[in-house]
Write a structure and sequence with these properties.
The chain is of the alpha/beta class. Helices cover 29% and strands 15% of the residues. Strand 1, helix 3 and strand 2 form a beta-alpha-beta unit.
Length: 484
């Protein structure tokens, strides 16, 4: 899935949250009160969907466990070239309902199927397809599992999953088992065993499973990426990323989400629920999984007071939210150490009042960049310890931003850049800019920060999802413009 606010915001909310329509399964199975009471005393292994299907299953909360490889690596594996990419979209609320416009804006892409148990949402999406001059897509609206029928179709190359978090894993798994490449909104899964199973399935089925991290395609992020790889920051030392976004109003809005699924996660986990927006770009700067790797995470969390305070001020006494007990830290701060000794700071805070920030910082032996607001200090260009204008480095923009200076869509164009580039890779038979190993690594802080906070900040090892492939340098986000 991804995030939460009107799509017209620029340099603020990185992506609106995906639809909450599928969340009714969770809401019907458990009340908010029982979720809060039961989850507070359980280990992470009690959370999530049913048992993994893999024969050799990783323990749900053991970061030291590394299952034996069952297939070949997916690092650098190219898509099969397609003249037309046939896409299916699952989840058509806030996020999926807007992303469909971007697929329709890319040449050589056909939306052939859409799925959402809320019929009106699916029909609105289908109408967008025909309005764009494409044949009417197949529509799947018959219950919570109709996505399985979409995945079973023989005329789909890529499936975009834009649903609530608790079903991301099962949908990604189903897509790959039916021979489809799949992209999933953040986070791709919520447990370590699920992350390992997605890695194994990608390797066994030879299908890519990607975290659709649009923030990696932001203009500033891609400019910093190119500058870092060109050595302008010197030897890289530290970076920081975050998702600090006041979501209190949206999480308590009965009309924004279909059900309280997003808020209920604050009754289940204490750690960083949404690390991907901050972690992904910094990991790219540092070539994590491409010459370096994240090896451990240490997390601490503040008291959990913000949502309860907001509820007390804004919600009536009979509101169902009064049955909920919030345990998720209002602000989590994590330190990730890499194999090369670099440090990445991650933050998460959606429960207290503050301006939006993803921090997006990078420092090295020659200087530092910080975002929100954007500013830079590099030697020998700058002196006197005074911040300089980042706009002066516009020549370092990635080729995507040079060719698409005014892209359509929300969030300043990063959503379109992600879709355009992904579809370009499929059409031309290129390897994707990021893969299942990046998806697992960028999402691992969800369960591991929870474990670290429960252990009073004790470091937790981050699994090597690449099983040693990280030692080999390879291309990633800093791509060369293809000839085709």
């Amino acid at each position: 899935m991804n995030d939460d606010a009107p799509q017209d915001q620029d340099r603020t909310d990185p992506r609106t949250t995906e639809d909450g329509s599928l969340s009714r399964r969770t809401v019907l199975r458990t009340t908010a009160g029982t979720v809060g009471a039961a989850s507070a005393g359980l280990g992470l292994g009690a959370l999530g969907s049913g048992p993994a299907a893999a024969a050799e299953r990783a323990p749900a909360d053991d970061p030291l466990y590394v299952p034996a490889r069952k297939g070949a690596t997916m690092a650098g594996v190219r898509f099969d070239r397609r003249s037309t990419v046939r896409v299916g979209i699952v989840g058509l609320g806030n996020r999926g309902g807007s992303m469909i416009d971007l697929y329709l804006a890319v040449e050589g892409v056909q939306v052939v199927a859409v799925c959402d148990p809320v019929k009106d949402k699916a029909e609105r999406a289908a109408a967008k397809v025909t309005a764009a001059g494409q044949p009417a897509p197949a529509v799947y609206t018959k219950g919570e599992h109709d996505y399985e029928n979409l995945c079973a179709r023989g005329d789909i190359d890529f499936i975009h999953v834009a649903t609530p978090w608790d079903v991301h894993f099962e949908m990604a798994k189903t897509a790959m088992l039916h021979g489809k490449h799949v992209g999933v909104e953040c986070p791709v899964a919520l447990r370590l065993d699920q992350l390992w199973e997605l890695v194994d399935l990608s390797e066994r089925t030879r299908r890519h499973c990607m975290q659709l991290e649009n923030c990696c395609y932001g203009r500033n992020e891609m400019r910093v990426l190119r500058m870092a790889h060109a050595g302008l920051f010197g030897d890289l030392l530290h970076g920081a990323g975050a998702y600090n976004h006041d979501l209190r109003g949206l999480m308590f809005d009965p009309d924004y989400y279909e059900g309280p699924w997003r808020r209920l996660w604050h009754t289940r986990l204490r750690g960083d629920l949404y690390p991907n927006h901050g972690f992904g770009p910094v990991a790219n700067y540092m070539d994590v999984n491409r010459g370096d790797r994240a090896v451990s995470i240490t997390s601490v969390g503040s008291p959990s007071l913000g949502l309860a305070a907001y509820r007390k001020e804004h919600m009536s006494a009979g509101d169902p939210s009064w049955k909920e007990t919030y345990i998720e830290s209002d602000r989590t701060i994590s330190l990730v150490q890499t194999a090369k000794g670099r440090v990445i700071r991650l933050e998460h805070d959606v429960s207290t009042p503050h301006p939006y920030s993803r921090i997006n910082s990078l420092g090295g032996t020659k200087g530092v960049f910080e975002d929100y607001p954007e500013r830079i200090y590099l030697e020998p260009d700058h002196s006197n310890d005074e911040w300089a204008d980042f706009g002066a480095y516009a020549d370092w923009d990635h080729w995507l931003w040079k060719e698409h200076a005014n892209p359509p869509g929300g969030h300043g164009g990063m959503d379109y850049m992600m879709v355009f580039r992904l579809m370009q890779c499929v059409r031309l038979g290129l390897a994707p800019d990021f893969d299942v190993y990046d998806a697992a690594t960028w999402t691992a802080p969800v369960p591991l920060s929870h474990l670290s906070i429960k252990a009073k900040g004790a470091p937790q090892p981050i699994p090597d999802f690449t099983r040693g492939e990280w030692k080999k340098a390879r291309s990633g986000m800093d791509s060369v413009r293809p000839a085709g």
